[in-house]
Design brief:
Layout: H1 7-10, H2 15-23, E1 28-31, H3 41-49, E2 57-64, E3 67-74, E4 78-79, H4 81-87, E5 93-95, H5 98-105, E6 123-126, E7 135-141, E8 144-148, H6 150-157, E9 160-162, E10 165-166
Parallel strand pairs: 3-6, 6-9
Antiparallel strand pairs: 1-8, 2-3, 2-5, 4-10, 7-8
């Protein structure tokens, strides 16, 4: 017998929005029509929402010394793998296999959220997030973002803040 989804998921919620609601965190959901032909999920989100790319953060999953780690960096730049490894006390980092990242987080590539993941992973939030009152991250599917205070994101994910992004 199939498991009945939670009421909030029946109404279009995702594990990320369920986690935010459960925690009592203030957030805003932004929805847009995802274009599969767009070359960058993050830049597409920034354009669709009319938000500066410096305030829209992408969620990347990396392998740091054999352990999966989440990196949350602005879509306007890229991830500095060496800085990520250093931030979590590791030596080497490489991007994780996309299929493994999807299985572990429970989200599809382009829709991986730092919130509500199937397995909670160590998380590093780029330090530039603290320069903004709010930032946007994936809400758990392509075409859906949540806007929230970076402090709330860091608290809920137990993230380390570190300069891991490159312009």
């Amino acid at each position: 017998m199939a498991k009945k989804p939670k009421k909030s998921q029946q109404q279009g919620g995702t594990p990320a929005t369920v986690a935010l609601t459960s925690a009592g965190v203030a957030y805003t959901v932004h929805s847009y029509d995802h274009d599969p032909a767009h070359p960058s999920y993050g830049e597409e989100a920034a354009e669709a929402m009319g938000v500066s790319p410096e305030r829209v953060f992408k969620t990347l999953v990396a392998d740091v010394d054999g352990s999966l780690t989440v990196a949350v960096v602005p879509v306007a730049g890229s991830l500095d793998l060496k800085a990520l490894a250093t931030a979590v006390g590791g030596k080497r980092a490489a991007m994780a296999d996309p299929a493994l990242a999807e299985r572990t987080t429970g989200y599809v590539r382009g829709g991986i959220s730092p919130l509500g993941q199937r397995k909670k992973l160590p998380t590093v939030l780029d330090a530039s997030a603290s320069a903004h009152a709010t930032i946007c991250v994936s809400a758990g599917r392509r075409g859906l973002e949540v806007e929230l205070a970076p402090e709330d994101l860091a608290k809920l994910t137990e993230a380390v803040l570190a300069p891991i992004g490159r312009a």
